Amino acid sequence: CYHRREVYTVYDMFTTRFKLHKVIYNHRTVKAVELMAVDALLAADSVLKISESITEPERFLELSDSILYVIERSKDPKLAKAKQILRRISCRDLYKFVDEVLIPPGVKQIRESEIASCQEDGLPPIDASDLSVYLIKANHGMGTRNPVENVDFYKTIEDVEPFRIQLSDI
């Protein structure tokens, strides 16, 4: 419960969360680095057996960012592709961002193959496996509902019954 005078602070917390997702967590550079790190880990999996650790809790708990350094310093030729991807991240030779569009309500997914099939004639071919689509839903955490309406407030410290504040009361 929060004191009713903190309603704007609570609302601001949800707005800050929205802004962080929009501006930082889903920024095109962050997404490029994230995708490249995943590709490097996938390329290293056949050697390091990273995916097998999910069935071995002790081994899974030992995984950390240090695995990237293990890949970078490895002499194993089977890790060359993973090393190259990590080197590209270090040199800021990141995967390219192509476009951002607003998706109409009701569209659940857009597949890479759909985008590749829309390519104009006369351009070099695009393979769907070279594309990544991120569908990002930007809201305050509860879709179209105002999350503050689900937060309990009190008027005085003696109150035993919390109450909810409606958007129209803010």
From TrEMBL:
This is HD-associated domain-containing protein. One of its GO terms (biological process) is dGTP catabolic process. Residues 7-97 form the HD-associated domain. It comes from Rhodosorus marinus. GO terms for cellular component: nucleus. PANTHER family: DEOXYNUCLEOSIDE TRIPHOSPHATE TRIPHOSPHOHYDROLASE, DEOXYNUCLEOSIDE TRIPHOSPHATE TRIPHOSPHOHYDROLASE SAMHD1. Pfam families: HD_assoc_2. InterPro entries: dGTPase-like, HD_assoc_2. GO terms for molecular function: dGTPase activity.
